[in-house]
Design a protein that fits this description.
- By secondary structure, the chain is of the alpha/beta class.
- The protein contains seven helices and seven strands.
- A seven-stranded mixed sheet has the order 3-2-1-4-5-7-6.
- Strand 2 (80-84), helix 3 and strand 3 (99-102) form a beta-alpha-beta unit.
- The chain starts with 24 loop residues before the first helix and ends with a strand.
Length: 235
């Protein structure tokens, strides 16, 4: 399957989740290349075709194509339902056939059980709140999709991908959040806006049920930058 790789990220939009980030080429590479690699991993792993219904859970209202990379690259856009808490209705105009649904954080998704063949969520679960909120997010995601794929930054990567700070996020969480607050990263100092996961913490979020679960690490320059979780319901 061929994809258009001629993508030049723009600087438009209110970068809500990347405040105070340094605008350098290595930062953009750190942010963008793993996203594209993980998208290709998804395509190879799930092998979706024109018959599969897809839910992309966690789209944003940012205009940079790399912020909604799934919509940009996925070939069967008419099968996508894009859902997010921000108003991203512009996606319907940008990608004809796609349907946007605005959802609310912590509220049951407005979809039926197993409504979608495949669910995709890129770097969203770390932004939904505390552990109980993350568990609910995953519970609902699994409920409405037969198969699920999600990505999230790995806490054990030496650079925290939102603040761009090295190593600070390896400290105990209370200390880490106090440091962020004092350094001026008040948004990320709040657990409701950012809670970074490890493999162990991600596994703990999976609700009871008969699932096939696989977690892989994405490596960036030899270091595990992201976690990739695949969940399939067993019949």
């Amino acid at each position: 399957m061929k994809f258009n790789k001629q993508l030049t990220p723009s600087d438009k939009g209110d970068k809500r989740y990347y405040k105070r980030a340094f605008n350098t080429s290595w930062v953009k590479n750190l942010q963008h290349k793993p996203r594209l690699d993980m998208f290709y991993f998804f395509m190879d792993r799930f092998m979706p075709n024109e018959t599969h219904s897809i839910l992309d859970l966690g789209v944003t209202n940012l205009e940079d194509p790399m912020e909604n990379i799934f919509e940009y690259y996925y070939p069967y856009k008419q099968n996508i339902v894009a859902a997010g808490i921000e108003d991203a209705l512009f996606l319907e105009e940008l990608y004809p056939g796609l349907r946007f649904v605005q959802v609310k954080s912590g509220v049951t998704l407005p979809f039926d059980d197993n409504e979608f063949d495949i669910g995709y969520s890129g770097a969203t679960i770390e932004h939904v709140g505390a552990k109980k909120d993350q568990s609910f997010f995953l519970l609902e995601f699994i409920r409405v999709c037969k198969r699920v794929f999600l990505t999230t930054p790995n806490r054990w990567f030496p650079i925290e991908l939102h603040t761009r700070l090295p190593f600070v996020h390896w400290l105990p969480e209370k200390i880490y959040r106090k440091i962020l607050f004092k350094l001026g990263y008040k948004f990320y100092a709040s657990e409701k806006n950012l809670k970074i996961l490890t493999v162990k913490l991600l596994k703990e979020l999976v609700p009871p049920g008969t699932f096939s679960i696989e977690i892989k690490k994405h490596f960036f320059y030899g270091l595990p930058s992201n976690l990739l979780m695949t969940i399939e319901k067993e019949n």
